[in-house]
Structures are given as C-alpha cells and as structure tokens.
Here is the input.
Amino acid sequence: MPKIFNTTADCKPDIHYMVNLDKRLAAIKRLVDSGAYFTINRARQYGKTTILRALSRFLEKDYYIVLMDFQAFGAEEFAGENTFSLTFARSFIRLFKRNPLPPQSPLHNAVSSLDEAVQNQSSALRLQRLFEYLADICAASDRKIVLMIDEVDSASSNQVFLDFLSQLRAYYIDRDLQPTFHSVILASVYDIRNLRRKLRPEDEHKVNSPWNIAADFNVEMSFSPEDIAGMLTDYEADYCTGMDINAMARQLYAYTSGYPYLVSRLCKLMDEQVLGQEDFSCRAQVWTKNGLNEAIKLLLTEKNTLFESLSEKLLRYPDLNNMLRTLLFTGKSIVYNEYEPSINIASMFGLVKNQNGSLTVANRIFETWLYNLYLSSSEMQSTAIYSASLLDKNQFVSGGQLNMRLILEKFILHFHELYGGSSETFIEEEGRKYFLLYLRPIINGTGNYYIEARTRNLKRTDIIVDYCGQQYIIELKIWHGEEYNRRGEQQLADYLEEYHQKTGYLLSFNFNQKKTIGIREIVIGDKLLIEGVV
Here is the structure.
C-alpha cells in the first residue's frame, strides 16, 4: 500500500513520505558522542518528535536509550516531589527495559533496586534519592546511557519540574565525579534558557539557576529544496505523475521556507483534497503550479493546530502582535535583535527570522496568513475602502481573468475621495494596507497573493497575485521624485523578466500637490507597465 503524507504526530518511514534524516541524525550523533547536554528547541510541528524517535533508532547500537515524553505525565504527577519521582522512575524503568539488558548483571540489579522502591511506593523516593538510583544504574551499565525527554516544557510551570532540572544539571556538571547520563537531550518549543517566557511574572523567582550548560544546537531542522525533492521522488515512484520534481520542490520551498509542517501539509492537501476537484481530475494535473496554488488557498482558509497556536500567541503577547502589524503594513525596517522580547518570542515560535540583520516574517505562508488575519478583523472590515471593494468586486473578473487595470482605477478613485486630504504620514503608513484591504475581497476564495519579501520596505512593496493560472505583479511605492520613479519603472521591468511576464502594474502614492491622479502606460522594451498615481 502506498505511503501517505503525514501532519499529525511523528512520521514513520514505513508508512509516511519523509525527507531523508540521515545527515541530521549523523550531526546530532556527533553531539551525543561528545557527551553534550542540549535542547532541540524549535517551533510547534517542526519535526522534533520525529527526529527524536529516529535518533533513538539511530543510536541504539551504541548506547542504551531512554526516550521519555513529559506530555504523557498528567498534572497530578507534578504535584509533589515524591509523586513526580515515583512517576519518573516508573516510566524510566519501563522504557529502559526495552533495551537488551544482560540478565543477572550489576546493571540488572541496579534497575531492580529502583523498581523495588517504585513497587513499594516508597515515600523516601524524592529527587535526591531518585538521582542516586539513576547514578547507580549509570555506574553499573555496560553501555553509556542517553536520556531524551520530549515536550519538556509542558511542565515548566511546576516547581518540581524546575527542581528536577536543577538536579539533572548538577549531576551533569559533576559527571567527572559521579556517574550520570552520558548525554541529555531535551526537546521543546521553549529553550531551557528561555523558560522565563513561559512563567507568569509573579513566578519568575522559580527560574533561580543559570541554565548555562546547554550546548548550542545548530543542526538545520527545516527542509531544503533537495530534502523536499527526495520526498517527492518517493511519491513519484509510487504514482508516476510526470511532475517536474525539482521545480515543485523549489516552489514548495519558496512558500514555506522549509517549515516541515507546511511542506507536508501542502503535499497532503494536493494529494488528498485538490485531487478530484474541477480541473484536477488526475495527479498529473495536481502536481503543477496551479495545483499548488489551490493547496495554498485551502491551507490558508482551514483551521489547523499550527495556525490556532500562532493565533493564541498573538493574543497572549500584544507587543508581538503590534510589532508584526508594523512590520507588515508600514514597510519600516526592524533590526533583528534576539534580546528584544517581542523578537525573541516571535523567533521562538517560528514566526520570524533574521534576514541580513533585519526582521522578516519566516515564510510566505505565515505572512499571507497574518495579512488575512489582520485584514479580516472587524476593525478593518468596517472601513469605507473595504465596503467599496465589496460593492465593486463583481466587475473585475471577465473570462476567469482579473482586470487589474480596472482595480487600480477604482482604488485610486475611492482612495482619493476618502483619504485624499490626509497627511503624508497617514498615506505612507496606511496606503498600502488599504490597497490590500481593497484587493483581498476581490480575489478571496479564488486567488492567492503574497508580498515579495526582498522588495518590501518603506519605499517599495511588490505584491504577487495568482488568480486562475495567471500571475499579476503589482508594485506599490511612495513617490520620491521623477528620477527615483524612473529607476523604479526599470526595476519592475527587470522583475517582470524574472517572472516571465509582459505586463506589470505600479501604484504610486504621491504627495506632490501638482500630481496628476489616474492611470498611464509606460513601455520599456517589450514590457508594458500600467501605473496608477494616487
């Protein structure tokens, strides 16, 4: 039976299409071999559990592996030191016994001693005693022991959890004086060093130790175009769609920047939901640019756990929300600084990244999702420009194609009527937002759009619209004189060449009192530029 694309829980090589993890596993093994203590902290649904389980299999020939999941511990298990110690010991023994232990050996006896304390529900089994038992097991073991804990931050608001980490840290630091685990791997969204972000302000006193022992984890967890191509090659071997594997991999990467969940989700949507729709009756039609655009549309409108989690973070952290709004709508450059709290939080949740020292949204999917979220707010939809778009939208489509020239004309008319007397600051900061607010109802449900990250700044923003197989490139810019405008026109013409387009669109927000409002055409080589001035 063919495999499937998976977006829930961990991926299993025998039943799921997966990227090849061998290079990642080899890189992590080098950390383990060196005896490192480290945290795999990545955003939600970034493949942490998949990599831990694959790593467990990868290491089992050389080490005894104990892979625990703190999410399996209930709240009561963290209620007190004795309860936690008993629960941890019970789970540790059960998992450790999955290893092939030599019978009637010192290791067997050491494990049995801890097991006896658990069976007797010993009230003396507290953290210090627990770690003494664990040290005895490590001392008696004929192999080095690697401890892995998944979802380690699920318990971080509990004092007993922080006390456990303190003990783990103390034993690791003194590993030259007393036996302990050879390597410790903690997987979480929150880095140990960032636990303060998860605690309530009144609980910050719980973070009372410098968590300065964790080694840097620099193994790349996102998927490269080559990774994605490898996964698609397996799929193609099963279905023979005739897709251009490398081109499809590059397109998936262009929209996701390799975020594992987003890559797999788009592939799953194409394989299971786009297939069978009108114009996509066979897989050969699905695995195309048009099929991918349809999957993107489905992804951006569905309710899924990743988007729900991101939405919750925006509500929890108002400063983060405000920072993203500023980044998206004003074009103002924000210097990437990990010590700025909102940037640190956004990075930890996978929403943003460092691009040449400046802050940018992590990928096109997240950026478009954020635009849609903000533009769909009741505040935005109550604006006059949005109401005008709803009244106008039926006149912009003919023969399945957008009349982008008419969209510019109508927007200019409405914007001039509604906001023509506004200040330069208002137009500079709000103009592009209002154009997106006008555009979105027109293409909603049929087309997609995204902002080209490399051109988005205070002076220029390029919007790429995909609508029924046709691509439209619209440059939004602030007027800075004729010379700057001519350079911008040439830039757009060059940009059109990259996208293999003959026609491009410019929308200039001009503060010159003598400006001429309306539409004009400019020809540069074989390119037609339709420019609107407002």
Q: What stands out?
A: Confidence is low (pLDDT under 50) at residues 196-211.
